[in-house]
Design brief:
The protein is 47% helix and 24% strand. The chain is α+β, with helices and mostly antiparallel strands. The strands form three sheets. It has a six-stranded mixed barrel. A two-stranded antiparallel ribbon has the order 2-11. The chain is elongated and about 100 Å long.
């Protein structure tokens, strides 16, 4: 009991000691809060970066021509020693393009660069979180490129800006491509509605393998909203067979997305795939390898913040050490008196 009474007396008569303790409390609280926020941000960013990519990505070294018979390559992978570690695979084509569209009420058409991706919706959902990022809730259960009723209704209501030809393939466009928000607005204004027609211009394989520009029309069926501006501002998804036709890559693909049953097997699977597939034709990486610079930058930032907070706490700790050392020196007579009255060495130590 005497320990608590004397401790309270010493602390309340020396406000420097209280200030030192408060600085430690604030420093530790800041470290916990900032570290929790940054860790949560890091985890959330990893989830969103992973959402567009599967666990492992097999790419062609020559993306313009890709590789033939992706189904046979996937069968070969399944039949290998790592086949039982794979949960799903799907081929795709990724290429750069120019998107042209004319928003309702605009006199001129708008153009912008995009990354156009040809996919099989069902296969894409098996290797990633593609479905959960679609804006149309009805399209999330069974994603497809089939025109939805809301898109058809919009087309019927705007015959002046669409040609009513519904034989064109449909597309899923990044949310930030299709919308904008002006200063002072608290809602998103649509530039491209589901039902709008857009024109994609890309480079295709011409006669003799020479690249040549080619344009193709698509009808917007849905929007893609991942929450990552890097994706929402430049990605556009179209049917794989349609993009094969546009790029002159019938029966070919330039990437295979692979989902693992256990991501801990990724190093082993990557190493096996690099031995299984010709190095001069294929590049094999995990999604973390693909996003390495961004993930590394966040890790460095988290380390520097923790290091700075550690030094703040260390300075406060030295302040407490100096304060209490002075208190012990000043209370030498008190210590002698307590020992004379029968206080134990442990009790005196606990007091200070």
């Amino acid at each position: 009991m005497y320990i608590w009474k004397l401790c309270g007396k010493y602390m309340t008569t020396r406000y420097t000691a209280l200030a030192s303790v408060a600085s430690i409390l604030l420093g530790v609280a800041t470290l916990i809060v900032v570290n929790s926020v940054m860790t949560g941000f890091h985890v959330k960013m990893q989830e969103r970066l992973h959402g567009i990519l599967s666990d492992i990505v097999v790419e062609a070294r020559a993306p313009m021509t890709g590789f033939p018979s992706p189904e046979l390559i996937m069968d070969r992978i399944k039949a290998s020693s790592i086949g039982d570690r794979i949960a799903g695979m799907t081929p795709a084509i990724e290429t750069l393009a120019i998107l042209t569209y004319k928003p309702k009420g605009y006199a001129n058409a708008l153009t912008r660069p995009v990354q156009i991706v040809g996919i099989d919706p069902k296969g894409r959902c098996e290797v990633g979180d593609f479905a959960s990022h679609l804006v149309n809730k009805a399209n999330q259960a069974q994603p497809s490129f089939e025109l939805r009723e809301d898109a058809l209704e919009w087309r019927r209501a705007n015959p002046d800006i669409v040609d009513q030809d519904e034989s064109w393939p449909s597309a899923i466009v990044g949310y930030q491509i299709a919308t904008f928000r002006s200063q002072g607005m608290n809602y998103d204004e649509y530039l491209v509605y589901p039902g709008n027609e857009v024109i994609v211009t890309t480079v295709a394989n011409g006669d003799g393998g020479r690249p040549e520009p080619k344009s193709y029309k698509f009808i917007v069926n849905d929007l893609y909203k991942s929450g990552m501006s890097e994706y929402d501002d430049r990605y556009m998804f179209v049917p794989l067979d349609a993009l094969q036709k546009v790029c002159g890559m019938q029966g070919r693909a330039n990437t295979i997305q692979i989902k693992l049953k256990d991501y801990a097997d990724a190093p082993l699977v990557v190493e096996s795939l690099r031995k299984l597939l010709p190095q001069m034709v294929f590049i094999v990486n995990t999604w973390e390898d693909k996003q390495g610079p961004l993930l590394y930058a966040v890790k460095v930032e988290l380390f520097l913040i923790n290091l700075t907070l550690f030094f703040i706490i260390a300075v406060a700790g030295f302040g407490i050490l100096a304060t209490f050392s002075m208190m012990v020196i000043e209370k030498t007579r008190d210590i002698g008196l307590l020992k004379a009255l029968g206080a134990s060495s442990g009790g005196v130590t606990n007091l200070f």
